[in-house]
Amino acid sequence: MKSEFLDPAVARYIVDHSTQPDPLLEQLITETLAATGDSAGMQITADQGVFLTMITQLTAPEVAVEVGTFTGYSSLSIARGLSGGTLHCFDVSDQWTSIARRYWEKAGVADRITLTLGPALETLAAFDLPIDLAFLDADKGNYPAYYELLIDRLRPGGLLMVDNTLWSGRVADPAESDSVTVGMREFNDLVREDPRVTVVILPIADGLTMIRRN
Ligand SMILES: C[S@@+](CC[C@H](N)C(=O)[O-])C[C@H]1O[C@@H](n2cnc3c(N)ncnc32)[C@H](O)[C@@H]1O
Known about the structure:
Blueprint: H1 8-16, H2 23-36, H3 46-59, E1 63-67, H4 73-81, E2 86-91, H5 94-107, E3 113-117, H6 120-125, E4 131-136, H7 143-153, E5 154-163, H8 179-192, E6 197-202, E7 208-213
Parallel strand pairs: 1-2, 1-4, 2-3, 4-5
Antiparallel strand pairs: 5-7, 6-7
The structure holds S-adenosylmethionine.
């Protein structure tokens, strides 16, 4: 359960009363655990997957971008919500994204997705399409730099979603001073003070920030 800041019973209830993963997503959850061990905790939660599909359906992006693909749960969720556009994925790991590629094929959405491997600060800098919808879920220390690259490319009215911004609730605990928590607080402050955007943090999973380019 990723919503560590919620009462565990409430967190369980939310997941149990959201649309459940279909057999293919269940299979991906199982394979990710078997193939990546402890790293499987990086996978988005099932309720987040539903949320990403729904947001994609509602916004109908032509150009969607994901930074941080791992084994493919979030990309599959976004791609399934597309109605004609393309999802451009960025990740550094061929090993982990090879699992994602297999599931894109199984789900019949591989033709809606491109994957660029390499450090995303470099590959994203070379990406020059106007972005309608973006999901950021990669190395947390680079969030401010990814933010600038993505906001620069986001069209007015476009939406950027950023994962893990409550960092298990530690951002709101003054006693927590580890570098990732401090960095996440600085990121959240940076976004709130940016006059180019409107922002709200949703307490879903580990915290999901919704950022609309004004
Ligand atoms: C939290 S996981 C993403 C989870 C994924 N969204 C899902 O639903 O399963 C973070 C991913 O970021 C990738 N990553 C880490 N550093 C990166 C970098 N510098 N450039 C691109 N990708 C990076 C990792 O390889 C990993 O797959």
